[in-house]
Amino acid sequence: MTEPLEIKNIFSLRGFNTFDIEAKTQYFINLVSQSDYQAATKSKLVRENPCFILGGGSNVILPDYYDGVVLHPANSEIKLLEQKDGHLYVEAGAGTRWLDFVNHCIDNGWYGLENLASIPGCVGAAPVQNVGAYGKEAKDVIHRVHCYDMADGSQRWIEAAECGFGYRWSNFKGEWKNRYIIDRVVFKLEEKFNPDVTYKALAQALADRNIDHPTARQLADTVTALRDSKLPNPSEIGSAGSFFKNPIVDSDVFETLRKANPGIVAFPAGDGRQKLAAGWLIEQCGWKGRTLGRVGVYEKQALVLVNRGGCTASDVRQLADAIIADVRTRFGVELECEAIFVNSEN
Ligand SMILES: Cc1cc2nc3c(=O)[nH]c(=O)nc-3n(C[C@H](O)[C@H](O)[C@H](O)COP(=O)(O)OP(=O)(O)OC[C@H]3O[C@@H](n4cnc5c(N)ncnc54)[C@H](O)[C@@H]3O)c2cc1C
After folding, report:
1. Which residues are annotated as catalytic?
2. Beta 65-73 vs 24-31: how paired, if at all?
3. Confidence at 258, pLDDT banded by 50, 70, 90
4. 187 and 268 in one domain?
5. What is the pLDDT of residues 271-308, one digit of tens each?
6. Is residue 48 scored above 80 in pLDDT?
7. For residue 120, which atom of ligand 1 is closest to its CA?
């Protein structure tokens, strides 16, 4: 006999979103075991109501009230499945905190995740937007993903090559939006530590610390220190990290922009295209450190919007729209939100 699902009613999501929005949901279900996933995805409640999958809530802007069911993956087992030809196949439950997972792997001598240290959120969300930092992306280490189909409760493995990974993108955000709930992810890690220090700021930070040949722990610690110097700590200041994606433009657009703005910050994005630093564009529009009502732009990084106390999704929307409009007027560039506005219709 499987245990019945524990369904919470009118449940506060205050502790479940890093923007610290005082949100509530009509129904909330913790998913701990495989039978929880099965029961939830086959349940009438999920079938007949709007449904949202909430991991660590570090990339979402929640509404005051979600009129539907919030499913919260909470399984957090980490298992070494196989060690073969210098690779380690490691499985982690969707509810595992990403930073715990990275630390666990480093402590066990399973390498490849160091540059992704200290990203908030859970393992189950990592494939969704293909989390990335300091020159690495989740796609570099994801082997395959296991999920349940929300339409009929069936299960399937999805190989990394099928996921359509791109910059802060995957099919889970596109054609598969709202279709699958990921319950575990298998990563392909390395036995041998091979540091990736191609990201300029990371190489510089290591040099500043007089580290020529970093250990995995030193690399992860340096990444964490860099992150701490630029990003707000979610336990102190509410935010969703980088709020906007860095826009990617064609080379001719970039050349025109560069002529008009010699200081523009950009990075090659492949195929001759350039990824513009959205933070720079926002800063040029005078938004860095500014406040609009209960929400503002972080003083140390213009890409980050922060809760100044008691903000709601509509406060955040208003500020985001004002920034998008200013960047469009000044540079002719369209900013896109990386953070996801949640409502019962999407
Ligand atoms: C201070 C700060 C710094 C950050 N730095 C970075 C960074 O360096 N790089 C980066 O890429 N991101 C960064 N982020 C954004 C965020 O941490 C990542 O997007 C993270 O992967 C979100 O994980 P989460 O569990 O909090 O997902 P949530 O915010 O809960 O959900 C995000 C999306 O994933 C979906 N989802 C979540 N879990 C599942 C699941 N199990 N199955 C299916 N869908 C699911 C949700 O429905 C939603 O659409 C940062 C955020 C903060 C607050």
Report:
1. 168, 242, 338
2. parallel
3. very high
4. no
5. 899 999 999 999 999 999 999 999 999 999 999 999 99
6. yes
7. 17
**Is any atom of ligand 1 closer than 6 Å to the C-beta of 124?**
yes
Query: What's the helix, strand, coil split of the chain in %, to 5?
Result: 30, 30, 40
212: which 2 tokens?
A: 């020529």
- Is residue 317 over pLDDT 90? yes
CA 54 to ligand 1 center in whole angstroms: 9
| Kind and range of the H or E run holding 47 | helix 44-48
86 and 167 share a domain? yes
Same domain, 60 and 140: no
Burial 62-85 (b: 16+ CB within 10 A, else e): bbeebebbbbbbbbbebeeeeeee
Q: Indicate whether 161 belongs to any domain.
A: yes
How many domains does the chain contain in total?
A: 3
- Same domain for 137 and 163, yes or no, is yes
What residue numbers bound the domain in which 248 lies? 239-341
Ligand 1 atom with least separation from CA of 183: 41
Residues 247 and 155 in one domain: no
User: Is it the case that residue 151 has pLDDT exceeding 80?
Assistant: yes
